[in-house]
Amino acid sequence: MQLPFPIATYHDRLARVRARLADRGLDGLVVTTPDAIHWLTGFDTIGYLWSQALVIGRDGAEPTLVTRTSERPGVAATSWLREPRIYDIAAQRPAGEIAEAVRGHRLSAGSVGIDLQAFTLVPAVWEELKAELPEVTWTDASDIVAEARLVKEPAEIGYQRQAAAMADAAMSAVVAAIGPGISETELAGIAARELGAAGSEYAAIPPMVVSGERTTLVHALAGRRTVARGDLVCVELAGVVHRYHAVLMRTVSVGPPAPRVRQVADCLERAMAAAVGAARPGAAAPEPDRACNAVLDELDLTGNRCHRIGYSLGVAYPPGWLEPMTLVDGDPHVLAPGMSFTIEPNLTLPAEGFGLKLGETVLCTPDGPERLSAIDPALIVT
């Protein structure tokens, strides 16, 4: 087995999840997201394109992982599970095999939670699963495992610190390469190469690079545009260790920035500092967002914010790296030591032809917020 943590850690996590099930009056849980399955078992695969599920009962028995035949070696090599339920995608129905696992944990007439918000729960499989188990009372329990993951253990934080150093190394290499004549795709390739050289695993989202007028596109992947003098270049990437992510975003000006760009960038830097400073233990989740907006309002820029200021971050697989806590109004969470999250008050000003990215991973500690990046959070001028 190749486990990131001692087996006792996984048993403790499973016990915590079972306690949450008891608190909710649930007899069992069906988990389908790869990040949650990995967190509970260590199982590491990209093969979740085909249906898989981890069935957990409150009976104390080992959870049952239902997955296809191709994954059998991976279960043995990367998880502590001993008795997976393997199905042949050419001959067996995933929903039928998941239903058998539910029955195996004596849950066929119980109250069972399932992560209905999971992208891995295909509607056709869900409908078939309900038909297979008509006596089950299903409950949306998408938060059961997700909430248990919010406060990180010291070893998890250690992996995120390593990932942040890898992100710094890759970002520094990309910044050094930025100049007239290089394309966005070349820069994204440099980011991927340097992340790999630093020891990073493949991130849940590949490196994003946009330049010039394309900097207004917040989530665009690198294109074939060539960088020119006077351009802005936005870079977003993540380092990954044992699937724990640390995200980093910076903007580079190729040559001296225009006065308006400098004005906005300076305001954004101060807004970022205010948001990070507000991410203290005991603060309500929306506080960093409010602190950021108070600064951006000085230049009437709050309306140019393009998404939430941040979200919790940890284990992730493609296609995304968000955990459930979001630092926005309406989120009920309270920040606590051990929570890690992004702070990213990115701006898009399409009417003015440019956008700015600035963000990174922040750790809430007993002494206050800690930025995990060593790169100065300012507009970089090359």
What would you note in describing this structure?
The chain has two domains: 7-148, Creatinase/prolidase N-terminal domain (Creatine Amidinohydrolase, Chain A, domain 1, 3-Layer(aba) Sandwich), CATH 3.40.350; 154-381, Creatinase/methionine aminopeptidase superfamily (Creatine Amidinohydrolase), CATH 3.90.230. 34% of the residues lie in helices and 19% in strands. The chain has ten helices and 15 strands. Strands 7, 8, 9, 10, 13, 14 and 15 form a seven-stranded mixed beta sheet that branches. Strands 4-3-2-1-5-6 form a six-stranded mixed beta sheet, covered by helices on one side. β11 (347-349) and β12 (354-356) form a beta hairpin. α4 (94-104) crosses α5 (123-132), α7 (154-177) packs antiparallel against α8 (184-198) and α9 runs antiparallel to α10. The protein starts with 6 loop residues before the first helix and ends with a strand. 48% of the residues are buried.
